[in-house]
Amino acid sequence: MLYALKIATRYLTASKAQTALLVLGVAVGVFIFIFMSALIGGLAEFIVSRTVGDISHVTIEAEERDPAVLITGEGHVLAVIEPGGSRTATLSEAEAFLPLMASVPGVVAVSPQITGAGFLTRGGQVAQVSVNGLEPGRESAIVNLRSYMVEGSERLGSGIVVLGESLAEEMSLRLGQTLRLQSSGGASAVLTLGGIYDTGNGTIDGSSVFVSLATARTLFALPQGVTRIEIKLSDVNAAGPIAERISALTGLDAVPWTDGAEQLMEALDAQAQTGYFLKTFALITIVIGVASALLLSTYRRRPEIGIMRAMGAGRAFVIFVFVMQGALVGLLGGMSGAALGYLALLPFPPREAFEPGTLPIDITQGSYGLAITLTVIGAILASILPARSAARVDPVTAIGP
Amino acid sequence: MTALLDVTDLHKTFGSGEAETRVLRGLSLTLAKGEMAALLGPSGSGKSTLLTILGTLMKPTSGRYTMLGRDLASADERALTEFRNRHIGFVFQFHNLLPDFTALENVIFPTAVREGRESAEARARGRELLVRMGLAARIDFPTAKLSGGQKQRVAVARALMNRPELVLADEPTGNLDRESAMQVMDLIAEINREEGTTFLISTHDEKIADLCRRQIVLGDGVVTG
Fold first, then answer.
1. Is the per-residue pLDDT at A64 higher than 70?
2. A5 contacts chain B (CB < 8 A)
3. How far is B78 from chain A, CA to nearest CA, in Å?
4. pLDDT exceeding 70 applies to what percent of chain A?
5. Which residue ranges make up each domain of chain A?
6. Which ipTM did the prediction report?
């Protein structure tokens, strides 16, 4: 129906000011839609990156074995070896899977670790700490230690320990000083303080210490294997499916970070719901605006509709003329609003550079295509009522004497 | 001469109860192909109602109406719209052109709306008609810039666009000065003479009626002369 499209276009261009206002109204609605999409998306991105950016996205931990029992032939339990305080469960063969895990699409880094509890002592001072044994060269694979260093280096060589600034202050430690680290199993090592970091996270800064994997093996008496494998992903939202894939590939129990973050997920979900509401209201405004403007146009053009009907234009043709007007207004308004939204979002920093105190708006999450598509669909739906009204115009009364 | 249309015992009643108005009261009429007839009668005699029914824009309350062998009194709206587009042209008192379109676009509308596009053939036919109407210099003019007489000539050209067998003209000169009125009537007479198009022209003007070969007089909803 090219001819109906021509008539629709002519009607719109004939009333330039009215059409411009209508398109502007739609564009503002689309602008709000896009701005809200970018803001809600950016905010979610910001929260997630700040919350889970420095944690393992997929974790594989050694499972504690069931306590060993000695049972008589009659089924009586004679003796049970109770689990000790020190970690004994290991991922003895898991290291063989490391290259396979690293090759899974979306995996950025794989960090085999030996972790456990310990005590840090210097002179008469003692602090309970969480010991993390990392592979030298992979210190920043999960927690980006390098970016948090305030003194020294994050490099974990033999006999080197790296700890948080608040712990260092608490124990009055300075770079290069020696201190003793004792594991919960009783083994101990004398280490040199090689670096001090400040992540801003009180728990990590006040109680985590990092040593090399070799040092951790000595401390926890684990000549081979690891206790934990941490995996970092390029997309934190893909943790679920990637964890499933790694489990399928290795047979190990890979746990995504979302499994322990129900509250965060609920908060993000609630935030997304708020965004949907706001965007829906923006769309409703567009639909009402287009519908009312076209209804007015229908009323104003009643005589012309009557003439067209008298000249042999069917009801379907009239409907098409008005629906096309709605579609064109939606398309023009949608594209203008999308362009306007994109331009307005350009000055905001990219998501990699979000800073506290600024609006975390992500220009890539503007949902431009979706906004235009929904606007065109909304405008078409909005034009159906005026179009039907136009098609019902009686040519005799519309033309009049 | 062969009959183009035939109406028998045509009734049209508006409203009901106390507000009931019987405009046509058993009107019968036959128009032959190629006729040029004037429709005369006082206001309220039913001229406009008859033209509206003959133009398939309104259905009679009762009675028979056939044109080109088709029963138009019982046809559905879609069929009537298509029939009207192909076989009937209209010229209204107030030209009723589409204001946002040029003279040529107005003329070719009946063909374009049927074909779904403005074909080259339609544009050629439209130009030819406008030239014939003496509007060669106004072909691509917006109709808003045309004089009353020029607009009415564009309306005549539009009525002829689909080569209809019947053109219904309701007071086509009623809004024109004498000179413009005579120009329009000369064109109608020429088309009738050369192409055999049937014209039924409603008018109050005796001089316009005298230009037609037949006068049909309506009175109180029936043909009286």
1. no
2. no
3. 7
4. 95
5. 2-51+264-399, 59-64+86-256
6. 0.89
